[in-house]
Amino acid sequence: MSLSKQLWESNWDLALACQKHPFVQGIGAGTLSRSHFAFYVGQDAFFLEAFARAYSIAAAKAPDWEGFTSFHRLGDGVIEELRLHAAYAKGWDVDLATVQPAAATRHYTDFLLATAWSHSPGTIAIAMTPCLRLYAYLGQELAAQGIPDHDYRDWISTYSSERFEAQAQQLEALVDRYAYAPAQEITQSVYRYALLCEQAFFTAAWQEREG
């Protein structure tokens, strides 16, 4: 079994908790309040900017050209995702230029960038993979009975798409290519902490007061 698959399966409890989270369930049912989703859009845009920077740092540290180009291509995918958020922001009356990061967002971005600056490309990929794999999983689960026709259909369509699944697999391939010694405590702790950050991110959006 590959390292990326081992990490996902050993942290399945957190993936399942995120799937059952009321914020995610609200997206799936179309019942999530507009103010909660608007808050999420702004926070996610802030997060994705840090995510793109982490890809750039990983690319600069990559030991070969294949890794360099792979990390850069994935970074291009984040830029495309930010364009989607810009469209969301316009439709949900969110001014991305004025967004201030919530504590959960700042904890996540600080963790990603600290990992990017301090560790090898393999460890950076381990810190970033939970985001893509989790969102691909959530999107596919929510779309299992077809893309619903409600306000959050674009979100579900994006993360259930073959294109997004391919990006998750590309990042997992980088984990398997560059990360070593899967028994090392840092490998497990970095992956799990990223998933905990994802869970906290959803909780922060869910607990945001109604506007």
CATH topology: Heme Oxygenase, Chain A
CATH class: Mainly Alpha
Tally of DSSP helical segments: 10
Helical coverage, percent range:
over 70%
- Bulk shape: globular
List the helices and strands and how they pair.
Elements: H1 3-10, H2 12-19, H3 22-29, H4 34-61, H5 65-91, H6 103-118, H7 121-142, H8 153-159, H9 162-178, H10 185-207
Helix pairs in contact: 2-10, 4-5, 4-6, 4-7, 4-10, 5-9, 6-10, 7-8, 7-9, 7-10
Quick overview of this protein structure:
The protein is mainly α. Helices cover 78% and strands 0% of the residues.
Can you tag this structure with a few keywords?
single chain; 211 residues; mainly alpha; Heme Oxygenase, Chain A; globular
Structure description:
By secondary structure, this protein is mostly helical. It has one domain (3-207): Heme Oxygenase, Chain A. Helices cover 78% and strands 0% of the residues. The chain is built from 10 helices and no strands. Helix 4 runs antiparallel to helix 7 and helix 7 (121-142) packs across helix 10 (185-207). It is globular, with a radius of gyration of 16 Å. The relative contact order is 0.20. The model has no long low-confidence stretch (mean pLDDT 92).
